[in-house]
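Lecture notes, part 5. Sequence design as translation. It can be helpful to think of inverse folding as translation between two languages: the language of shapes and the language of residues. The source text, in structure tokens, appears below.
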């Protein structure tokens, strides 16, 4: 099975690699896709080492090419950029919406105490 992570340069990606290394033995390839080459250069090797530390045989690679990463993928995960994906952390646009009243995902995913 090939799993592609769009936004794979995120600093949360090593946590994902840890979970995959422990819980998803059927994975053959993990591909991290991100337009930021510097982030991939930092996060990619760490994620590969985490998978290897679990003894997971999957190939871990990283690329800036969406086409390369998505080609032949059995599943694609999307890591949305920025703090807008974390409840309680607001972007400027979300802050404006919050002042007018919570909407959409903000109502469903209220900040945890």
């Amino acid at each position: 099975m090939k799993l592609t992570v769009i936004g794979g340069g995120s600093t949360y990606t090593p946590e994902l690699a840890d979970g995959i290394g422990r819980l998803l033995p059927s994975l053959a390839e993990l591909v991290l896709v991100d337009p930021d080459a510097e982030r991939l250069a930092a996060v990619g090797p760490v994620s590969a080492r985490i998978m290897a530390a679990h003894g997971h045989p999957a190939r871990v690679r990283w690329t800036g090419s969406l086409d390369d990463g998505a080609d032949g993928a059995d599943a694609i995960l999307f890591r949305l950029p920025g703090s807008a994906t974390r409840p309680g952390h607001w972007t400027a646009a979300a802050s404006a919406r919050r002042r007018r009243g919570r909407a959409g995902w903000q109502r469903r995913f209220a900040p945890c105490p």
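The translated text above is only one of many valid answers, since several sequences can fold into similar shapes. Confidence is low (pLDDT under 50) at residues 88-94, 102-113.
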